[in-house]
Amino acid sequence: MTEERNRTECREREKTDIKSLTLQELREEMLVKGEKPFRGEQMYEWMHVKLVRQFDEMTNLSKTFREECKDRYHYTSLRMVRVQESQLDGTRKYLFELSDGNVVESVWMKYKHGNSVCISSQVGCRMGCRFCASTLDGLERNLTPAEMLDQVYAITRLTGERVSNVVVMGTGEPLDNYDNLLVFLKILTDEHGLHISQRNITVSTCGLVPQMRKLAEEKLQITLALSLHAVTDEKRRRIMPIANRYKIAELMDACAYYFEQTGRRITFEYSLAAGVNDTGEDALGLVRLAKPLRCHVNLIPVNPVKECDFVRTRQDQVRAFQNILEKNEINGTIRREMGRDIDGACGQLRRRHLSGLQDIGGNEAC
Asked: From CA 244, how far away is CA 2, in angstroms rounded?
């Protein structure tokens, strides 16, 4: 059974990943196949507007053509294997299975201004940040553009509601999957697809300086969020291994370059851990870094992960930290904790599923 599945997976990997093709690439693919370009436009609409899960649902295409497509192309369609729903605010955390059996997490959050989805960009992560559950098992592989897109599409189908904001801040380091990320952004914001505004998309990074500069030169209107978490190189190296490669001064230069090229303010993500990075001195250090860039700062009480030894800062201390920022004209917000009664930290639901510790959801396809 395992050998047969492996053979099937190999055959699928050899096929063209059709949902990862841009509209222009799909038009060109149809020409190669001997079809008119408009056939590609029809398929693109089925995949990226109507969000169908398989070729057979493309009902205005002939059965013969659909069968040919099955033989020639791989069609990404994630399967939901688990879901947790918060009883506090309705936040849902989904676990999706990929075609190779790997699983990834996505989160759906409902706000007054619209629905947000947080997606993963990799299976696992190799960045090694000490407060993050995503990285505990290392990196398995990058996600394809289609696998990133289908997290948004699957949640749209499951909830029956439009997604207006997308955050690439789940499992993985998005800029470590740079090329696939760019294709994902292009298709997600394409006027012929879901057409989500670039300004409604946030991409997080732990600070891969060359990729930050490269992304700046794309001149996209997305928000770049830097996971900073410390204001000195020494302290940052203790909690984020990437700090051994890039110093804070290099990060700030890259942030300034991004703002210069795009006109978009950087957001600093700052997870507060008791006794680690939450002192008044830390707050003033954050002011010094943020003020020249006119950054927005997201303060995040660290999410407890049992494999890590960080403890969240008390709420009164979080507010005191925020007050120091605001007294120094830095816009600092305390991130609203969505779904705190479910596995909140990135990677926790996936690890729980892989370890088989607890049955926590339904087994339905989306």
From this structure: 41
Mean pLDDT for the chain? 90
- CB 174 within 8 Å of CB 204: yes
Q: For residue 285, count other CB atoms closer than 10 A to its CB.
A: 17
What count of other Cβ atoms lies within 10 Å of the Cβ of residue 192? 13
What's the rounded Cα separation, in Å, for the pair 335 and 303?
Answer: 12
Query: Whole-angstrom Cα distance, residue 134 to residue 348?
Result: 7
The string of pLDDT tens digits covering residues 28-47 is: 999 999 999 999 999 999 99
Contact 158, 80 (CB under 8 A): yes
Other C-beta atoms within 10 Å of 222: how many? Answer: 20
Which active-site residues does the annotation give? 105, 346
Which single residue is written with the structure tokens 């659909």?
66
Q: Give the mean model confidence (pLDDT) for residues 112-136.
A: 90
Q: What is the pTM of this model?
A: 0.90
Tokens 């989500």 label which residue?
A: 196
Report how far residue 64's alpha carbon sits from residue 208's, in angstroms, rounded to the nearest whole number.
Answer: 47
**H helix runs in the chain, sequence order:** 2-14, 23-32, 37-48, 63-72, 145-159, 178-189, 209-218, 233-239, 248-262, 280-290, 315-327, 348-355
Helix axes 145-159, 178-189, angle to 10 degrees: 40
CB of 180 closer than 8 Å to CB of 143: yes
Choose among 194, 193, 207, 200: nearest CA to 222. Answer: 200
Yes or no: say if 321 and 299 are a contact pair by the CB < 8 Å rule. Answer: yes
Assess contact for 91 and 85: CB atoms under 8 A.
yes
Nearest 5°: the CA angle 146, 112, 93 is 45
Between strands 114-119 and 165-168, the pairing is: parallel
Among the listed residues 109, 121, 252, the one whose alpha carbon sits nearest the alpha carbon of residue 184:
121
- pLDDT score of 360: 36
